[in-house]
Amino acid sequence: MYMRIAAFFYATVFLRHRFSKPWLCPIVECTVPSHVNCGSAVHELSIAQSVVDAVCDKAGARRVCGVRLEVGRLCAVVPDSLLFCFDVVTAGTQAEGASLRIDEIATSVRCRECGEVFSPPDMILLCPCGSADVDILAGRELRILSMEVS
User: Residues 53-83: pLDDT tens digits?
Assistant: First the structure.
């Protein structure tokens, strides 16, 4: 029940400017998949909104059929949440029904002390030598790689 209310609340807040009567927006009774954590979906919802705005601006009057994103693991984006939020945000736009493909970029880090390049398994950027003085080489990306229009 909490997840259903949370999804409705977040979607209503972001869709309020699109509908004169937000309580009549098409997602009043949305069903959130059990694997989507709506408690942290605000981050993904704002990213989805920004992506849809950028894609719709670029598409002009054409219909958007698909979008491909590149997302680094350090962005802390949950792909399932982003896919759900993308579907919510595209409702009523020229991108409605568009597919979203997410390419995850692994984290790559170089230690400033020993020079080793490694890929940490989580968000803790600690070199095997014990140093936390690192340069992030990859993993912070968040790019729209391509879009398909018709």
Answer: 999 999 999 999 999 999 999 998 999 999 9
- Kindly give, in sequence order, each residue whose CB lies less than 8 Å from that of residue 109, ignoring residues fewer than 6 positions away: 117, 118, 119, 120, 125, 127, 134, 135, 136, 137, 139
Architecture of domain 2-102+139-149: 2-Layer Sandwich (3.30)
- With beta carbons less than 8 A apart as the criterion, state whether 42 and 78 touch: no
Q: Which residues of 59-72 are buried (b: 16+ CB within 10 A; e: fewer)?
A: beeeebebbebebb
Give dist(CA 136, CA 146) in Å, integer: 25
93-134 tens-digit pLDDT: 999 999 999 999 999 999 999 999 999 988 889 999 999 999
